[in-house]
Amino acid sequence: MNVRLPGASIRVEGVTKRFGRVVAVDDVSFDVPAGKFVVLLGPSGSGKTTILRIVAGLETQTSGKIWLGDTDATTVAAHRRGVGYVFQRPSMFPHYTVRENIGWGLKLRRLPRVEIERRVAEMIELVHLDGLEDRYATELSGGQAQRVAIARALAPDPPILLLDEPLSSLDAKLRDQLKDVIAEVQQRTNKTMMMVTHDQREALSLADTVVVLDLGRIAQLGSPTEVYRRPSTPFVASFVGSTNLVRGSVTGVQPDGTLAIRVLGRDVDVPRQDGLAAGDSILLSLRPDDLEVIEERDRDQFPYVFEGRLLDSVFIGDMLRIEVDVNGETLRIHVTGRARFSLLQHHPEIVLIALGELVILPATATGQVPAEL
Q1: CA-to-CA distance for 295 and 339, rounded, in angstroms?
Q2: Cα(first)–Cα(last) distance of the chain, in Å?
Q3: Average pLDDT estimate for 57-69
Q4: Is the pTM of the predicted complex or chain greater than 0.85?
Q5: Do 185 and 249 belong to one domain?
């Protein structure tokens, strides 16, 4: 008996997976509401693909439960869970055409020929494979083959679609194209989707919810904006986008809760933050795109302005990536707009840096801090 998924939601409940002495997934729990897109984001070895395979039934958890809709699917075989699965590398039957590959699963279900043809035509239109219906695998690009894999997984109309790094084997242009296709598929079909990736740009642009994994545990769960703007640990701040982690300390707490902190060689006041007291060590997370090179005449318009020495600059077309020494700390800054051309032309030795939103993290927060990606 196949699993029925009236709500098409996913619940991962206290899941742990051990491979011998290695704990790949450590007591992970989260919910995916019906019709939402969740992305499991993390570096290699963080447990994200293991979780996806456990949800699909391709891997058996050591403990914990998997709920699909209102059904406890923990012990249900993979082929009876009623989910679609797209693997990292597309696998097509080489002796089948695009049309035949997409309809393969429907033929196994012994659907009427007219129904198969109708459904295959819908899938071809959905993933933009029009005109390629009669091509074989050797005649397709990597991006086209992955679209076939997505269409084949969707053809039986599963309420849940699982994607295991479907963009990782493609070049940058094809990645962007297929990412747009995946977003369109989710919007048009309202499928519940769960995707694994190590690319934070993919996660932030596709997900309703991002689950950031670190060493088999959830480091943070939230909307793309939350995990990017309000990281909970140094690991999340560093992994979800580029950041500058600057060490500092709390030097005092005002009666109104305002914190006095010493950072980048200066004392500054910042808004209240619970859990911090005088003498505590902190890490300041400064996104390169939250730092701005300003003119002297604009200094009074910004609350936090520091003077720095320009060390290096790299022109990357739509932005200028610079490194600036501020009281012994090297800050990476992304300069956009016309300002990047002005810096390229004049090469000033000393620049004024305005700090945007300050994200303060306890220096004792757990979790690895990855090298700059």
Answers
A1: 10
A2: 46
A3: 96
A4: yes
A5: no
